[in-house]
Amino acid sequence: PSHRALRQVRFPAPIPEVLVRLSDCLDRKSLQTPGIFQPGSGDPAEIHRLRSDLNEGTFDPSTVTDPCAVASLILSWFRELEPDRVLADCALLDRFSPSTREEEVSELIETVPLPERGLFLWVLDLIVRTHDEKASNNSTLSTLAVIWAEALFPARDDQEMAGYFC
Q: Most buried of 11, 73, 78, 164 (most Cβ within 10 A)?
């Protein structure tokens, strides 16, 4: 089966094509880039060009020269859902705390409704893949957690968010 088909099976709900295309590009272009997913990373001109290409249906992964621009577009996709962040309507954080035991986490994730659960698991997978390259990209789990929490959840204190996930 194709890489795209595997992703559809792997997650409990379909992942939007734009996210799959961007993620596939990141897979090829490297999660090892220092500063990947950091606020303000990515060449603004390339971000604008890639966004236009995506909107016009002319996106070509072979034209990407800045993996940080792709990462920025992925984060932007989630942030632009405001005020309906992916996890805005679920009470996941109200039931999750820094003392939540590992075996409880899966049960909590199962309470997230579809399709939000699929997107959440997709992001967690991307976070893990990014963190796996921490020796090259210098991304700590705490930093990734804060960056992604801001994109997924309604606004909360950054320190509070880092405490939930690290």
A: 73
